[in-house]
Each structure stands twice: as C-alpha cells, then as structure tokens.
Design a protein that fits this description.
Rossmann fold; about 15% strand; about 40% helix; about 450 residues; alpha/beta; 7-stranded mixed sheet; 15 strands; homodimer
C-alpha cells in the first residue's frame, strides 16, 4: 500500500454516481412519518403540499439501496467535489497519539459546509417540476447559503427565514445569501402568522430552527408554485448526504484505511447520517465492527438526554410527526454558537440506529468544543465551524484515550465546515466571555410534557 | 489528451521541490535595491537589521534559477496544497464565450489566500535562525492571518500592524489572527514613533500599508531577537510564490493546456509574480507568446499611472530604496475594499518586466470589480476576494472579446483568495452604496513630488 498523503482526492470519474439509501439495509425500518391530522402513516400525496414530488418519493423510499444521481446534479457536484479525506498528521503529532486520525473535509465550498450536497439535489428536482421559488429556514446560515448558491445556479427564487440570534451573530451570512440573490428574513418575523404567534408568546426570543421552519412552511403553502425545502433531519436529505460517506469509503478502500471509530457532529443528523451510510450498511451486514459516535451540544442534547417519541419537526406543530429522539418541539435551546445544532430532534434514521444500539452519543459544552476547535486550527491550519468542532472534540478524546492505552486505532470524523463566519464566537472564547448552558432536568421535563399524544 | 476535469489537482509527489527565481532568466536584472543612507546597492549585511539571513540572501540572489524548498516547508505546504487549477466551465457558459477559462485557486486555506506560501517560508527561516518573534503589517488581513497560522505552527511570536480601515471593516480577520495566537494592533497606532508621527500629521487617517510597514519595522528593530517580515513586493516573496506558477504549469502540461493570456491582480505583485514566473521564463526564452496582464485598482494605479523611479517601501521612508512603478510612498490611497491592493508601489521584478514590455496592465474601479465578482460567484460558486476580482474582471473582459471575435483563446487567471471576510464590501455593493474613487492628476503629482531624489 502506498504512503498515505495529507489529502486524498478521488478523481472526477471516481465520484459516486448513485446515492446510498441506508433504509434499504436496516434490519427494521424506522417508524413511519405520521400525518399530523389523521395520525396515519404519510403517503406521497400527504407530502406534496409542502415538498416537490421527487423528494416526497425519496422520503418514502425504504427499498432501493442505491438511487441514481441525475447528471445535472453530478455536474454541480463537480464544481466543489470531491472533497478531500485528510490525514491529520499534525494533530496526531500535537496530541502525541498512536492513533491515526482522518477527517472528511466538507468546507471547501463557499457555503462552508456539507449542506450544498442536498441543496443542489433539492433545487434541481424543484426546477424540474416547474417550481419557481423555494422557502427554507437556516440556523447558522450554512444551509441558507448553500441553498442560495444552488438556487442562483438553477434559476429558482429563494426566501430564507434565518434564526434571529444567528442573523444577529452572523450578518456576513446574510450578505452572502443576498449576494447569491436570496431574500433573507430574520425569524421569528411579523411576515407570517406563525412568526407573529411566536413573537406574541415569547417577545424577546432569539428564535430557533423550529420557529423558522414554521414560517418557511407557511409561506411555501401560501405562495403559488412555491415549495419548502429542509436542510437536515429528513430521510431524503440524509440520502443526498450519503455522497460524503461514499466518497470517504472509496478513498479509504483506495488506501486500505479501516476506521475503528467514525464520528460526526449531530444536530438534525444529515452530516452524520451521510458520512456513516455505506459504513453502517457494512456493519449491519456484519462486515465491520466500527464504533459510530454522534457528537451533540450539551445545550440541545436530543440523543443523550432526549426521549424516543413522535414529535413535530417545528415549533408551531405543522409538520408531519416523526418518531425520533427529541427534547420536545416546544423546547427552545439557549443561544449557543453552534447554531446548526440547535434543533430539538434527531433524524428518524439515526434515532432508530441509536435506539437499536448501532450508534452511541456524547454531548459537550461549548467552551470545551471551542478549546478543541482552537487546538485543531492551530495544528491543522483549518478553522473549523463550531458545529464540526463537536466532532473534533470527540475525536481528540478518542485519540487521547489511545495515547493512554497505546492502541493504534483509526479514527475518522466529519469536518462538516469552516468557522469563517463564526469569528464572533471565537472572539468570545478568546476573550474568556463564553458561557456554557446545560438544560436542567426540569427544562427537559417541560419539553417532554409538550410532546404530542400519539 | 483526456477530457479536462473541473478541477485539476497534482498529486503530492508532483508538487514542486524548488521555487523558481525569474531573476536568473531575465535578460537584464532590475536595478538594485539601494541603502537609504548611502544610496549604494544593498549587500546582505545591510538587510540584516530587518530581515533574517536566509531571506536577505534570497532577496539578493539573481543567479540561481531554482532554489530548493526545505523539507519542513514542503510538509507545511502539504497541509493545504496543491491548490486546484479550475476549468471555469460554468463561467464560460454564462458568458457564452468560445474562450476556455482557467483559474488557479489559492483560497482553499484558512488565511483565504496565496499569502500562506510565503508566510510558511519566512517563518521557517526565522525559526531556524533563532528568531523568537516577528512583526508585520497587514492590509485586508490575508497576510496577517497567513503569518499567524505559520507562526503558531513553527512556534514563533507575532505582532501584526493592521491597516486601521481594514481592521474596522474586517474585525473577523482580527479575531482569526488572535485565534492563531497573534497580537493585532490597528495602524497607525500610538505604540510606535512612526505611528505617532503619522497620526500627528493625519489625525483622521484610515492608515495604509505604507504606514503599517513603518510601525512594524520600528518594532522589529527595537525588539530583541525579532525580525520584520513582508507579504509582498520583495523579490524573495515572489520567489516563494512561484510555487503557484510551478503547480499551474505542471497542471497545464499534464493536460496540454496552453494559455494565451495569463492574468493576475497586482497590489505589491506577489501573486502575479508567482503565478507567471515559469511561464515568463519560457516567454523570455522565446518558447511561448503569452500575454501577461496585471489587473490593478484605479484608486491605486501604480503601473497604469505611476512613474518608474526609486522609492521607499513605506510611508516613513525607512526601507531600502527600490526602483519600481509607484504613485509615491507619500500617497495614501482612498479606502477602497481591496485592501490588499492598496500599496503605492509594485514589485521591482514586475516593474522591470512591465517597463521592458513583457507585461501589460489594466486598472478598474471597484464597482465594476464587484459586478464581475458577483457574476463569478453566481456562476462558479466561489465568492472571490475583492483583490482577486480585479483579475476576474480582466478575464471576463478578455472572454467577452473572444465572444465578439470568435477567438477560442485560453485565458488563465489567478484567483488569489476568497471574499468570506469581505462581506461588508459585498453588502455595500448589493445595497448600491459603493462609491468609486480615482485619483486626480494633481493627487498623483503630489505623490510624485514626494519621491526621494536619487
């Protein structure tokens, strides 16, 4: 086997031609999405008021393990993919660990994260079905920026409801979305009924992904030829994100790299779900014994402290019900800096895999996460996104364990994006003014009490 | 020849092992650097109060065409290089041009630009010679960030004098430098004699690279075991940046790409000089007939409206004298958003090549540059730095000419960096509040009148 370079790039020809659908491999499917009115399992038609048809079909496809990536999306992917699989030689040296550390780096595009992988797909299908405009929500802004890039490329209009606290922390993200032609509205806003309702109940709120989703869905329903798109949580988003895992696995296979541990940060779960998809398939088939770890914020601990229940995807309780690990759709997490992880629930696919013992989870307070981020930046060069830094923290912990035990484990994590728009947060960490917030048991009980009765 | 992919990456083994020194190929050397006191050509010893020895020697090396890149620097390069040579398929389509457009993209590292190539080299040599801290200036912040990254990697302290107007426009850059452990001072400051003098004369000034250089040099001289490093203009910086051109040429040779036009933005000249170095050698040797174009801001037009004369590198007239195209070291350009191009002079190497007719130059007002930047971002995905966008503007103009004439020219330009820290400028462009500023002939005459008598 040849020596492993710092960065492994697949050639254009080696890029995946199909996405990987882990649901076709899972021994038991996750519980079905339920219609919020009838409480019956959703069929494609139930999803059409919100989603375009191709995506609704992908959402409910539990049978095909591989789904072809249309040529137009593959062309778009070639603008910024393949992304590198990086050997973290410098971090290994800094930690003095016998572990081998790799990360799949998804931050080399202007959206700064993996979100572009699903944005391209969703906008392509919308355009193909004659949709002229889209609405969405964004937390930290990565998803909104990604969607703006895809919309301007395919020629589709876009309105982004941006979580207010993020819009204030990250004006640059707004300017970026506007440069790509999107309209950006801070959420909760007074432009929708949902927004006005939330503002009336919580006048001082900084908003949340749940609130912003409600506003975006309402606008999509009320606007002609307009659909809603979502950047995480849903099965079809994880499907698109499998391009991360497929590229990673191809690169690993090329160099004989066999991960012992695979780590991803987890908010809604799209990155982790995409990264592990083909590796998990092998695990389910008994072909590997990889430990999969979800790294989440202690301020929004859906896996580590949540409950496995049917819940809405949004605060205003308008979405279909999904069975997932959740801290409750009425729970509004504290304004920590990893905006992309401030979602009350977790992907139904990942929730099921976690419930069945295929994945473990850890949670971290943000000051520990920024310490890991800073160590990583100083040794590997790249300034990570706060979200991604949760995975870094978990990877460093694993590598330090190896230093203590002498194990030469191969640790692989997803570096979902860069922190170039998160420097206010870094400044707060550098200045020593960052505070950590962890919900009390009472806070969580309140969230659980608001769960729908199913 | 195989089909050309969107992105051409060299393998690690194909990365350059030596830098290219264009001075060894030029038919006539540029005029020597002069000691500001004696007005005699500088020898190595003259440079040692400011620069470390290896760099002083490289600065005065007119004879060796190739200079080996030390192993430690090559390791550092592997963290973020090779950079991709990108075929701008989407931009070509958007413009409807028969031209083939390529760009060498140097913005994939956290400093966001090519500056890291020389930062790594300069810090390595300083460390090797026992230097414990460095000082420098930064305009837009790319150089300062690059240097902070290299300093923390090699374990050397750093103080950055950041042009005040940039520090105000781009606080994120400051936070980034601080995250990498650097101390950042807005210039002009009251911490140096030079700064206090400039402030006394121009109380409201937003500063300039020239001012910041004066402060950084003063601090380096007054601090033990401390040297000054510079991110552009000087011959040794262009030498390090030749890694850009060498990689580009290797990628072109691999796919049989023969550029007709090569374009780079030009402030101090390090990117353009590095990009064209090996191609220019071939041109001088009669092996190609490439048109080289320097793209500069109309607000600081050293090539297009400057004079070819001996001048200082800094406002306070402390550096050696260099013969270069200059608008005068006393000229303080208007605060346009391409901070990295706000330097009064131009690299002596490029000045000589321009003087001898090997390079042509064009200047652009910033609103035209941002229009080109926005078009590029929307078609190619990547949000460019305002500096780089000068080259984009020139490349688009060339490609549009091809559309009119039907010529299938191959146009190659340097995309030096990303605009992620420049979104205030994009916002000003989007909001229609951006103004253009071009110096009057009288403004320039005043700058010329201040030139030293040599």
């Amino acid at each position: 086997m040849s020596e492993i370079p710092y960065k492994i790039y697949l050639s254009e020809n080696e890029m995946p031609k199909s996405w990987h659908n882990i649901r076709a491999v899972m021994k038991e499917p996750h519980d079905p999405m339920l219609h919020p009115g009838t409480l019956k399992p959703c069929v494609t038609e139930d999803l059409l008021p919100i989603f375009c048809k191709s995506l609704a079909e992908q959402e409910l496809n539990f049978t095909d393990e591989f789904i072809e990536i249309p040529e137009e999306i593959r062309s778009f992917y070639k603008m910024y993919r393949p992304s590198p699989l990086v050997r973290a030689y410098c971090l290994e040296k800094e930690l003095g660990t016998p572990a081998k550390i790799y990360y799949k780096f998804e931050g080399t595009n202007t959206s700064g994260s993996h979100k572009l992988n699903s944005a391209a797909a969703q906008v392509y299908y919308a355009k193909k079905e004659g949709i002229t405009s889209l609405t969405t929500e964004t937390g930290a802004g990565q998803w909104g920026t990604a969607l703006a890039m895809a919309c301007v490329y395919f020629g589709v209009g876009l309105t982004v409801y941006m979580v207010k606290v993020s819009a204030e922390q990250k004006p640059y993200r707004r300017y970026a979305m506007e440069t790509y032609g999107a309209k950006v509205v801070a959420s909760p806003s007074d432009t929708t009924e949902s927004g006005r309702k939330i503002l009336a109940e919580n006048p001082g709120t900084g908003g949340s992904l749940g609130c912003a989703i409600s506003e975006a869905i309402e606008t999509a329903i009320k606007t002609q030829n307009c659909k809603y798109v979502l950047g995480s949580v849903l099965d079809h988003v994880l499907l698109h994100q499998s391009v991360i895992g497929l590229e990673t696995k191809a690169a690993c296979d090329m160099y004989g790299i066999r991960p012992d541990v695979i780590i991803g940060c987890a908010g809604g779960g799209s990155n982790l779900g995409g990264l592990i998809s083909p590796f998990m398939a092998d695990k389910i088939r008994g072909k590997n014994d990889i430990s999969f770890i979800a790294a989440e914020p202690a301020s929004c601990p859906s896996l580590t402290r949540g409950t496995y229940a049917y819940d809405f995807g949004d605060t205003c309780r308008t979405t279909p019900l999904m069975r997932m690990y959740t801290v409750g759709s009425s729970y509004i997490p504290s304004p920590n800096h990893a905006g992309g992880l401030r979602f009350h629930g977790m992907s139904p696919i990942l929730s099921k895999l976690y419930h069945d013992g295929y994945i473990s989870a850890k949670s971290y307070v943000q000051s520990d996460v920024f310490a890991a981020a800073t160590l990583f930046a100083r040794s590997e060069g790249t300034l990570p996104a706060p979200e991604s830094a949760h995975a870094i923290k978990a990877a460093i912990d694993e590598a330090v364990k190896c230093r203590e035990t002498g194990e030469e484990k191969t640790i692989l994590f997803g570096l979902t994006g860069t922190g170039y728009f998160d420097l206010t947060a870094y400044n707060s960490y550098n200045a020593g003014t960052m505070t950590d917030s962890v919900p009390s048991d009472e806070d969580l009980e309140k969230g659980f009490a608001g769960l729908p009765k199913v």
